Amino acid sequence: MRMPAEWETHASTLLAWPHHKNDWPGKFEPIPWVYAEIIRHLTRHERVRLVIKNVKEKAAATAILECAGVDLDKLDFPIIPTNRVWLRDSGPIYVKSGKEKIMLDWRFTAWAKYSNHQFDDEVPVALNTQDKIKRIQPMHKGRRVVLEGGSIDVNGKGTLLTTEECLLSKTQCRNPKFSREDYESVFEKYLGVSNVIWLGHGIEGDDTHGHIDDLARFVNPTTVVTVVEKNKKDVNYAPLQDNLKRLRKARDENGKPFTVVELPMPKPLEFEGARLPASYANFYIANGLVLAPTFNDLADRAALSILAELFPKREIIGIHAVDLVWGFGTLHCMSQQEPL
């Protein structure tokens, strides 16, 4: 089995319509409109499967999407109850075995932090009643493995990025007593990964305790972008410098060094005294375009320009994410690609 890279051709993008108002306390009202703008761009290039919790919600979502100019013919509406909408983590991960597409149904425990995750854990099963493709629940040492899509990133050739903070820490521990070697064995068996690059810590304010998709991302098999903080007094400066050093020393599955490209960090973004995980690394690569979060920051322009150089054949679309990130996630966190 092999997990395709995100830039490989998609059959669709999986999203879930926002409904859990407590994820955006005091800021929920604009969130459906942000989603509509994201869907409008995506449906110009690929199908979107928009998970809706019930028929009433479908009618409300459709009204907003029509107002936003979305091509509804490019949308599917699987009706599946959810606790939250972060399908990067609760949704399935698709892999390929030859030409066969397989759904990996990992256990989801809401980042080992929240108790209300029972609906989210069943999303892959519910989707597969429609897809009817082979579904596997990854197991290791006699138990089902907990893994979130935001905790890993692959180059599609055998190399995977992750962090020690997320997978090896005793805080928000996903798989108690799992070692580095245990995870590497799981990645090899189920994702076709022979080479794992372990970074250290995630960014401040990250509710997931160190997801890689706020830190460093593959943009092609031999190039990695990673966020860096220029302000030495900022809490993110030291851990991001450590990650940068690790990437510069890292080697790919063939023993060759990567091209490492630095992305800026926006200035600290806070709401009601909480530091938010605002990061330009949380972009999403779709067919024909890259959606990138922006934060009303001077660094927005630089980040979009860097991504434009890295993806010369794709449109680079900035999505205003100041409200979205109050839910402790942005574009990559909310989406999951289904390979062709």
What does this structure look like?
This protein is of the alpha/beta class. The chain has a single domain (10-339), classed as L-arginine/glycine Amidinotransferase, Chain A, CATH 3.75.10.10. The protein has eleven helices and 20 strands. The protein has a four-stranded mixed β-sheet with strand order 3-2-1-20. The radius of gyration is 19 Å and the shape is globular. The chain starts with 9 loop residues before the first strand and ends with a strand.
How large is the share of residues in beta strands? 15-25%
Number of helices: 11
The chain-level structural class is alpha/beta
- Arithmetic mean pLDDT: 97
Short description:
The protein is α/β, with parallel strands linked by helices and 340 residues long.
Please render the helix and strand layout as text:
Blueprint: E1 10-16, H1 31-42, E2 47-51, H2 55-67, E3 75-76, H3 87-90, E4 93-97, E5 100-104, H4 110-113, H5 118-121, H6 123-131, E6 134-136, E7 139-140, E8 143-144, E9 153-154, E10 159-163, H7 164-168, H8 180-191, E11 195-199, E12 216-220, E13 223-228, H9 237-249, E14 259-264, E15 270-271, E16 274-275, E17 284-286, E18 289-294, H10 299-310, E19 315-320, H11 331-334, E20 336-339
Features:
alpha/beta; 24% strand; 20 strands; 3-stranded mixed beta sheet; 27% helix; 340 residues; L-arginine/glycine Amidinotransferase, Chain A; 11 helices; single chain; globular
